[in-house]
Every structure is written in structure tokens, then in C-alpha cells.
Amino acid sequence: MSTVTGEMAVMLDLMGLRKGDDRILEAVVLVGPKMEVEEFDFGGEKSTHYTFNDSGTELMFEEDVLIGAVVRTQPNDEEEPYGVYPRPAALVEGLSPTATRAEVTAFLGSPERVGPDFDRYAVNNRYLRFEFDAHDRTLRLTAMLNPV
Questions:
Q1: What is the mean pLDDT of each run of 10 residues along the chain (148 residues)?
Q2: How far apart are CA 79 and CA 89, in angstroms?
Q3: Looking at the whole model, is its pTM more than 0.85?
Q4: Number of structural domains in the chain
Q5: Strand runs (DSSP E) across 76-137, as ranges?
Q6: Is residue 1 part of a domain?
Q7: Is residue 2 part of a domain?
Q8: Does residue 98 form part of some domain?
Q9: Omega of the bond leading into 81 within 30 degrees of 0 (cis)
Q10: Which domain holds residue 40?
Q11: What is the C-alpha separation between 75 and 97, in angstroms, rounded?
Q12: Which residues, 6+ apart, have CB-to-CB distance to 76 below 8 Å?
């Protein structure tokens, strides 16, 4: 299992915390302060999203547990009104925020799971998913509690 440092490591460390835990403010400080809260109920499973449109970030809770943090590293017309993370170069120390798929693999090793437009890595005792655009450049990073 690889270890990453940088602001995504902060997000990864927060996975599994319950909504209301003061430590989640570590993420809010990185991406806030302007936040929208959306509540969903999918067949009895409650989900809450803290959305930071200006900074291209979403924190996702299921049953009040933080399970994911999505961060956008470059503009994408298909994802309006999301902006881009304010400090993309700080996300993963030593890796460009728009790294190619090959560069990510060279940096982190073999992915735990590969899809047509994503690679998922086991890092920091959690999961980090890299989504790629049509040019194989990193578009989004997702810190994940569980591999879904």
C-alpha cells in the first residue's frame, strides 16, 4: 500500500468520521467557506453532500459517516457550476494535479482497480480514485472510505 502526502492525505484521514466531528473542519478550511448542503434519501439510505462549488469539492456522507471527498483538478464544461480546487498542486505532493494516467502509475505503482476512465489505489489505509479526461489527464480525485 502506498502513502500519499498533501491535502488529499488530509481528506483521506477524515474518511469514516461522523458528521459533526470537529476534525471535518480541517477539510472545510481547505475548501470553504461557501458551502451548500444537500440531503438525499435513496430507499431509506440517508446521504448528505457538502458542496463547495467555487473550490470544486464535495464531501459525501452516508448515514452521517464521511465516505468520500471529490476534488476537481481542472475545468470541465460538463460539471458546471463547479470550479477547480484552489491549490491543485498541493493535493498530492510530488504529483502534478493534471498528471497523465501513466505518470500516476509511475508515482503510485499498480492500481488496485482499473476502469475505462479511472484508476483506484489503496493508499493511507483508504482508497484514492483518479478520474481521467479524454486526453488521459487527471480530472478528479476522490478520497474514499471503501472501494465502491
A1: 94 96 92 91 90 94 96 83 91 97 97 97 97 96 94
A2: 21
A3: yes
A4: 1
A5: 113-114, 118-123, 126-132
A6: no
A7: no
A8: yes
A9: yes
A10: 7-144
A11: 12
A12: 82, 133, 139
